[in-house]
Inverse folding.
């Protein structure tokens, strides 16, 4: 009974994500990114990331906290991707150009920072086009081709199309060699968290025994959101077309001579995204703490999708994940030599202003066994999503 209570206390305390040749782990407001360099050494960068939910208690309300968590996860993902790119030498800047110096002096950002945010914005626009506009437009084409009216059931068809697009997208990107390796680190992240939550010592052999599928994974979150969007969109269609009597197809045809209903429902879909994200977050947090038959049934599709987004890691990738989780939880692993891996500590020494970046040097020596800490007192419990 005592072991069961101890394991329950470990649930939702740490989460993370895979990056280029590494793993990021976040516990509380500490985010530790561990990467394997080309020389084979493990290096770690610590960052402090305090959720706005701690500063404004109103943002901790159910549903709303899920949307806030999603936005913060995006911001943290950009930050950790930048760290991993530095470690891998993708952002070595020997001498800045005049434009780069002006950009950093004026906006406090490097060219890499700007490129990352532009890429993120383009990614969001692409997601809206693929998962919102395209399904609505395809449903409209199907109605025209078969000369039928789907009515409110068009929402269900759009939802099914989103799921199909999502699955094919994951299958296509998984064909890329670098993405497959990132999926291996994704599996290492899940397995190490599962080992920690089971109350076992974090060693390579112990981690290897655990599953690479986790109910709080971002893949599961996306899949849950897709299912919830079907229900919410169906409810909105019923409200607009049956209860209120708004037929956007007929209204736009009469006004413009074109059926613009796909664009209208795309706009509605964007507006209800915070609600869908919030509901998905609440479900994953609940599923992460409960393992009843109903929860297992509802979680099954998301766990199945993780067969595409995670792969079995090798021992070296597991070592990176173990290092990340131990660095992110110093109170839990006080005997772990973090300094042997830490190359930049922005948690205790936040940078005042960004300068031209160079790929950081790896520490000269590392202990042979990086995965044998002693258990200690548990820090304050927080909710994180792998």
């Amino acid at each position: 009974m005592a072991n069961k209570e101890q394991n329950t206390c470990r649930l939702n305390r740490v989460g993370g994500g895979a990056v280029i040749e590494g793993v990021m782990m976040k516990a509380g407001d500490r985010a530790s990114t561990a990467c394997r360099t080309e020389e084979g050494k493990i290096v770690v960068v610590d960052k402090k990331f305090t959720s706005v939910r701690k500063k404004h208690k109103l943002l901790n309300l159910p549903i709303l906290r899920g949307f806030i968590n999603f936005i913060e996860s995006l911001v943290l993902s950009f930050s950790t991707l930048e760290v991993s790119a530095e470690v891998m030498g993708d952002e070595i800047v020997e001498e800045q150009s005049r434009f780069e110096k002006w950009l950093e002096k004026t906006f406090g950002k490097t060219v890499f920072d700007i490129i990352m945010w532009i890429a993120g914005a383009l990614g969001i626009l692409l997601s809206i086009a693929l998962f919102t506009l395209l399904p609505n437009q395809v449903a409209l084409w199907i109605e025209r081709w078969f000369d039928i009216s789907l009515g409110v059931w068009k929402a269900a068809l759009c939802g099914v199309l989103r799921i199909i697009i999502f699955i094919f997208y994951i299958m296509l990107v998984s064909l890329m060699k670098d993405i497959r390796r990132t999926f291996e680190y994704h599996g290492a992240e899940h397995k190490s968290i599962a080992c920690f939550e089971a109350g076992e010592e974090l060693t390579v052999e112990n981690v290897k025994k655990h599953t690479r599928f986790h109910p709080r994974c971002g893949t599961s979150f996306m899949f849950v959101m897709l299912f919830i969007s079907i229900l919410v969109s169906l409810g909105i269609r019923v409200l607009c077309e049956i209860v209120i009597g708004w037929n956007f197809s007929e209204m736009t045809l009469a006004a413009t001579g074109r059926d613009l209903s796909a664009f209208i429902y795309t706009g509605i879909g964007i507006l209800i995204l915070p609600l869908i994200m919030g509901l998905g977050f609440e479900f994953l947090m609940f599923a992460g703490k409960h393992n009843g038959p109903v929860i297992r049934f509802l979680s099954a599709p998301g766990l199945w999708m993780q067969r595409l987004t995670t792969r079995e890691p090798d021992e070296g990738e597991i070592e990176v994940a173990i290092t990340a989780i131990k660095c992110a939880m110093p109170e839990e692993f006080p005997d772990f030599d973090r300094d042997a891996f830490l190359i930049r500590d922005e948690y205790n020494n936040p940078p005042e202003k960004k300068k031209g970046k160079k790929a950081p040097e790896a520490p000269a020596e590392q202990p042979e066994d990086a995965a044998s800490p002693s258990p200690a007192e548990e820090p304050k419990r927080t909710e994180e999503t792998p």
About this structure: The longest strand covers residues 30-36. The chain is about 60% helix and 10% strand.
